[in-house]
Amino acid sequence: xxxxxxxxxxxxxxxxxxxxxxxxxxxxxxxxxxxxxxxxxxxxxxxxxxxxxxxxxxxxxxxxxxxxxxxxxxxxxxxxxxxxxxxxxxxxxxxxxxxxxxxxxxxxxxxxxxxxxxxxxxxxxxxxxxxxxxxxxxxxxxxxxxxxxxxxxxxxxxxxxxxxxxxxxxxxxxxxxxxxxxxxxxxxxxxxxxxxxxxxxxxxxxxxxxxxxxxxxxxxxxxxxxxxxxxxxxxxxxxxxxxxxx
Length: 246
Fold this sequence. Notes:
Layout: H1 2-28, H2 37-68, H3 72-88, H4 90-97, E1 108-110, H5 138-147, E2 154-156, H6 160-173, E3 177-182, E4 187-193, E5 200-210, E6 213-222, H7 231-243
Helix pairs in contact: 1-2, 1-3, 2-3
């Protein structure tokens, strides 16, 4: 009876670990080409909490059973299964304690809302794109200025050629896939992936000479989704920080 009870605890722990691995695979599967990012995102939104509740319930029932049968090893395994279930519910629990920050329903962020950098190589035929690369105009600009007043061009003391070289270095260091680069016009276009789900966003960087110095503008656009949950603004901030060596 003891061996059978312990095996029951092992099965519960296996189920919990399998569920956890399934969630991780769903979140990062797009990076392995298993499905489109939106598929993984949709599955997590739909099934993460039910899976978490299910694992907790099974673990709790198993824990009660193991305690009744006085099987300490099985009880530890069942308790571990329950804790994995709690971990799966962590995003929901955190969200209820600390409500998520509200972001504007925009997905196109730029350091220059008056004359945003234009994409010349990437276009609306890019894979999986549902959003256009045509800038949305004054309405989008107003939304951005209200939500992200700190997003502004880099005013660099470097000559334009050096600034472009540094921009290219930073883009590569951030893991962007460089789609096109033109040193003569000092502009580059690239594709960046989000760390979770692997959503693809498109970026253009343009360096403009200003006397012996330069100005660097960045624009980052999501391929999918009306809003971006602040991802594009965060990417631009990270680029600026790396460029300025902070």
